[in-house]
Design a protein that fits this description.
Elements (H helix, E strand, L loop, with lengths): L5 E4 L8 H12 L22 H10 L15 H10 L3 E6 L8 H13 L1 H4 L2 E3 L10 E4 L15 E4 L13
Parallel strand pairs: 1-2, 1-4, 2-3, 4-5
Amino acid sequence: MNKGMEFLVDMDGVLCDFTQGVLDRMAEQYPEILRLPYDAHTEFEVQHNYPEGVRGKIRRLCEQPGFFRNLKPVPCAIEGMRWLIAEGHDVRICTSPLRQWQHCVAEKYAWVAEHLGEEFVRNMILIRDKSLVSGAILIDDHPEAATKGSKQPEWMHWLYDQPYNRHVHGHR
């Protein structure tokens, strides 16, 4: 059997719906903040879509216990991961923890165990600089994933479509 390609797949915004998770928490904890429709988010950092005075509150929402653990899967993302594996590809999750990582790291592992299975937890890479990770293709929603690392990555960036990256030209 031919060995497939090495895929690196981001979590937030690709496998799990980070933006919707923030919007849901905003509705619960800050109903006074007018929430933009999902498709109106034109900035990668969710809080940067809102006035300066509320950005700190919004940013802190994703640092709370349970935030990452309770994110909903992006529609068809789990099925897409299973399809890549069934096709013989080496698929790994490559995700960046928040700088305030205390809840984020364990919850990302728990999310993967719940949605993809315990065996897939072994295929996770948590790293802030994805340019240091080997692979053929990185599927990531960050519009600057290929240029923000400390070195030129060996992988090709396939930009996962989100409202905040539609202005970027590249592989989709």
